[in-house]
């Protein structure tokens, strides 16, 4: 990475992660930060990242100094680092939008690589990927929530550590330095992108919690808004148990892969509670069990369950990312990999089945088979031509050593 050169960063998408990353990364003149969004007119170049109540409160607020906010990627083709934000089910579309304008030597990464980001990049860029550096974060750098769209964001729970997968391996050292400089969080490399796909995170946390709260919902009757608990700090023991059931099935998938490929490194596919404690550290005041870990994590405070206002109260937001990201681009991916391994996942099946009834979809058929006619609408490996475990593990990187031009 060349010293003294201003690094141009473009964050793609208009969600919470874009808001917070734009504020944090543009804090220094080392970076020139753009935002690629469908709603550029609603953004302020002086977006504020509010840290009050978080472990970063002593730093004060972050005030952005954004360079360009646009819906036209041709205006930002000089970008050195492209960061895909937003839910996994829009990643492919974002990558297709920017692909013609990504210059050789650029970095292409994502805040959250759980939904098959690596497979998407291989399909979108093809052989051009050999000229790029690809990276994916294990988890978004912070729990955050836009306060006023395009104007301010609350940074609620910064991670104590970031984990990242990088290809090609020759770019690891430079990419880690770049990530640490952008988000000011110590960063550790992961051995492969499959670790990110299998990590127990949003794809089990969100569905389990929504199920725990709304399991008896008839799809119509509204709730009193005052009855809706907070997402994490009001965690109940039933929701925590649902999480444990899903988490255990991810570990069974991991064990099945390791049984057939013992040399393949999935060390960082940790049990969920262990992963949270590792990433949030002392922010978790009582790590006794899953229930207490969620309820006492400072980084999870004040986050609300997404609901939609209707006549007579509120209902779960069935149009939001918890349904349309975490099921087709989370649980469905886990389920197909389980099929590759030969592992039965009754709890993942049950969770998909409960959510799909409100999505007007049938991803899983009554006989527990995957609905082949809907797989193209999901992020499962077979969508990208990966149809068995050998292909999943043996897919060779298209990346080769190349100097990323910073």
Automatic annotation (TrEMBL):
GO molecular function, one term: oxidoreductase activity
Ranges in coiled-coil conformation: none
Domain Opine dehydrogenase: 190-359
Pfam families with a match to the protein in the record: Octopine_DH
InterPro entries according to UniProt: 6-PGluconate_DH-like_C_sf, 6PGD_dom2, Opine/Lysopine_DH, Opine_DH
Source superkingdom: Eukaryota
Name of the protein described by the UniProt record: NAD/NADP octopine/nopaline dehydrogenase, alpha-helical domain protein
Source lineage: Eukaryota, Sar, Alveolata, Ciliophora, Intramacronucleata
């Amino acid at each position: 990475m060349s010293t003294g050169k201003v690094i141009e960063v473009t964050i793609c998408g208009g969600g919470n992660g874009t808001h917070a990353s734009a504020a944090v990364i543009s804090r220094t003149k080392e970076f020139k930060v753009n935002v690629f969004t469908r709603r550029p007119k609603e953004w302020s170049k002086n977006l504020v990242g509010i840290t009050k109540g978080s472990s970063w409160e002593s730093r004060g607020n972050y005030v952005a100094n954004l360079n360009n906010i646009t819906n036209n990627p041709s205006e930002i083709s000089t970008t050195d680092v492209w960061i895909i934000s937003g839910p996994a089910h829009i990643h492919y579309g974002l990558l297709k939008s920017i692909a013609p304008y990504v210059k050789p030597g650029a970095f292409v990464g994502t805040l959250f690589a759980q939904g098959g980001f690596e497979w998407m990049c291989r399909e979108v860029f093809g052989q051009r990927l050999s000229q790029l550096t690809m990276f994916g974060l294990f988890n978004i750098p912070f729990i955050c929530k836009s306060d006023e769209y395009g104007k301010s964001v609350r940074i609620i729970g910064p991670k104590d550590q970031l984990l990242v997968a990088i290809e090609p391996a020759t770019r690891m050292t430079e990419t880690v330095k770049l990530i640490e400089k952008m988000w000011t969080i110590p960063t550790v490399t992961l051995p492969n992108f499959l670790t990110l796909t299998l990590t127990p995170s949003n794809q089990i946390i969100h569905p389990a919690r929504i199920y725990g709260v709304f399991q008896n919902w008839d799809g119509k009757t509204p709730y009193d808004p005052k009855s809706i608990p907070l997402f994490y700090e009001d965690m109940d023991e039933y929701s925590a148990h649902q999480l444990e059931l899903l988490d255990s099935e991810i570990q069974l998938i991991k064990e099945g892969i390791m049984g057939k490929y013992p040399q393949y490194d999935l060390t960082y596919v940790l049990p969920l509670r262990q992963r949270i404690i590792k990433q949030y550290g002392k922010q978790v005041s009582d790590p006794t069990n899953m229930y207490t870990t969620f309820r006492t994590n400072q980084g999870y405070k004040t986050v609300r369950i997404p609901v939609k206002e209707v006549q007579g109260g509120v209902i779960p937001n069935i149009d939001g990312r918890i349904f349309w990201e975490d099921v087709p681009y989370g649980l469905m991916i886990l389920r197909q990999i389980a099929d590759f391994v030969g592992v039965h996942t009754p709890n993942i099946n049950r969770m998909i089945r409960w959510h799909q009834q409100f999505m007007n979809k049938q991803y899983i058929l009554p006989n527990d088979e995957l609905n082949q006619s809907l797989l193209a609408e999901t992020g499962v490996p077979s969508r990208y031509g990966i149809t068995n475990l050998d292909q999943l593990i043996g897919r060779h990187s298209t990346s080769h050593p190349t100097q990323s031009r910073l």
